[in-house]
Design brief:
It is a single chain. The protein is α/β, with parallel strands linked by helices. It has 2 domains: about 55 residues, no CATH class; about 150 residues, YbaK protein (Alpha-Beta Complex). The protein has 8 helices and 8 strands, in the order ααααβαββαβαβββαβ. A 5-stranded mixed β-sheet has the order 4-2-3-5-8. Strands 1-7-6 form a 3-stranded antiparallel β-sheet. The N and C termini lie far apart (about 65 Å).
């Protein structure tokens, strides 16, 4: 089995072996069939020996140890996420704020099911609380950022982008933001590599609040800080 697989591999690589140590002498570059065949055999033999040497020199990791190492990496990743969650903010969002040098503070509140309830229990004006809505567009996704007191207008968004858009499901949104709880859509698309659009009705001349990646944490930044985080994002009237 190994020899058959190696022979097939060598056959696929026979045209690239010259750059890997196979020296083409004048007799090997001849176009006569017999000499051309000898050239291929020589290259294949050298490449086969090199492959065997690589296999023999490669460290062998038992399957049990490999599985244990993978579990350890997964555990460390989860612990890192939990440490960020203890601070009350998703890891990706935390790093985005830190990278942009935007000061922020957080506040805990009773668990809520939507942004309107969050504004109510946190005693924050709906116009000052930003929320994200995931839309399906052009075979992908887009994040609309608007005040919690408003609803996204799919028709207006469609007019701006020139194509039909529709709401994404919570399951689809959850796959886009793996370090956030389901339904807790962030307001930043850049760190998650998702196209974004900002509603003009979101007033950034005042302090802005937004969810921190779960349904229990509110993040507060200044209007200037939020403006920096939204730099370069297209804007338009996309709410009703």
């Amino acid at each position: 089995m190994w020899r058959r697989g190696t022979r097939a591999l060598m056959s696929r690589r026979r045209f690239s072996n010259a750059g890997r140590g196979c020296i083409l002498t004048p007799w090997m570059t001849s176009r006569r069939p017999a000499e051309g065949l000898a050239r291929r055999w020589s290259c294949q033999a050298m490449a086969r020996r090199r492959l065997v040497d690589d296999l023999l020199s490669a460290p062998i990791v038992p399957a049990a140890e490999a599985e244990t190492a993978e579990r350890a990496r997964t555990r460390r990743a989860r612990e890192k996420v939990e440490r960020i969650r203890i601070m009350g903010i998703a890891m990706t969002m935390h790093e985005f704020l830190e990278d942009n040098h935007v000061p922020y503070d957080i506040a805990r509140h009773a668990r809520t099911g939507n942004s309107t309830m969050t504004a109510r229990v946190s005693h924050v004006p709906g116009k000052a609380l930003a929320k994200g809505v995931v839309l399906k567009w052009d075979g992908g996704y887009m994040l609309a950022v608007l005040p919690a007191s408003r609803q996204v207008d799919l028709g207006k968004v469609g007019e701006i982008v020139g194509e039909k858009v529709e709401l994404a499901s919570e399951e689809e949104a959850a796959r886009l933001f793996p370090d956030c709880e389901e339904g807790a859509v962030p307001v930043f698309g850049v760190p998650y590599r998702i196209a974004s659009m900002l509603d003009e009705d979101l007033e950034m001349d005042r302090d802005i609040y937004f969810e921190g990646g779960d349904h229990r944490t509110l993040v507060h930044v200044t209007g200037a800080g939020f403006e920096r985080l939204m730099y370069g994002m297209p804007r338009g009237r996309i709410s009703a």
